[in-house]
Amino acid sequence: MGPILGIILLLLALAPLPASAFRPVRGPIVLATHDLAPYGSYDEFGRFNGLAVGVVRAALRRMGVDCVIRVVPWKRAQELVRHDQADGFFAAAPNRERDAYALFSEPIAEQEYAWYLRADSPLDPRSPDFRDKALVSSFLGANMNLVLVRSGYHVARAQPENTRDLLKMLEAGRLDAVMANRLVMDRILRDMGQEDRVRASPFTHTPLGVYFSKDFIARNPGFLKEFNARVREVRGAESAAPGAGQFRR
């Protein structure tokens, strides 16, 4: 964990509770997520934290709400909420499928979608024939896959469970290009020392939030409004931290 990220997370953890803390639930709420640094991942001591996790925990703390975070594969995180086995999942981009059974919160983080190709690939994502020529993919359960399908790209049937395995498929030649969260993929490439083996091409930006199940919100009216207000407070404090801007894309 970098020193500036550590400062941000410490400020979030030490943020005082307001006098009128909202307490809509008696027991802890259950939120599902996946291991996706730097939004949420395990550190060397086995603690799960990150940019998105820190915002969620700090917002709930200001509300006086306890939380249990379940770390599972991303597709399963969404299924847990769909089948009422968890109250919400994060950090997720908005889409119509998720809107059918859950409600999107105030953004807790930002992300940039980017194309990744092998460095020696002659393909250009900006070319008119790229959609027809390139075999592409993202990871299982990702909103990016829906974007690719709806945009008419040639999407591979076999999809990995995470970004690291997606990179392996690209390097092995099983895919011509992959779409990934730029902050996540660039971190993986740095960690693996493979920044010179692939090249990136920007695609679009989209917010990330918490999707709370509609059943949970129905049982706890007013929760989402209060959570959104606390997220705005927390992110306001985060943006005031020295050097915080370099973590937002």
Label this structure with key terms:
249 residues, D-Maltodextrin-Binding Protein, domain 2, 2 domains, two-stranded antiparallel ribbon, globular
Summary of the model, kept short:
The protein is of the alpha/beta class and 249 residues long.
What Rg, in angstroms, do the CA atoms define?
19 Å
Based on DSSP secondary structure assignment, what is the total number of beta strands? 11
Which fold name fills CATH's third level, the topology of the largest domain?
D-Maltodextrin-Binding Protein, domain 2
Q: Identify the CATH class of the largest domain.
A: Alpha Beta
Largest sheet: 9 strands, mixed
- The helix tally amounts to 10
Helix content: 25-40%
CATH superfamily of the largest domain: Periplasmic binding protein-like II
Following the backbone from N to C, one meets helices and strands in this order, namely HEEEHEHEHEEHEHEHEHEHH
Describe the 3D structure:
The chain has 249 residues and is α/β, with parallel strands linked by helices. It has two domains: 3-110 and 206-247, Periplasmic binding protein-like II (D-Maltodextrin-Binding Protein, domain 2); 111-205, D-Maltodextrin-Binding Protein, domain 2 (3-Layer(aba) Sandwich). 37% of the residues lie in helices and 23% in strands. The strands form two sheets. Strands 1, 4, 5, 6, 7, 8, 9, 10 and 11 form a nine-stranded mixed sheet that branches. Strands 2-3 form a two-stranded antiparallel ribbon. Helix 1 (3-14) runs parallel beside helix 2 (51-63) and helix 2 crosses helix 10 (223-239). It is globular. The relative contact order is 0.20.
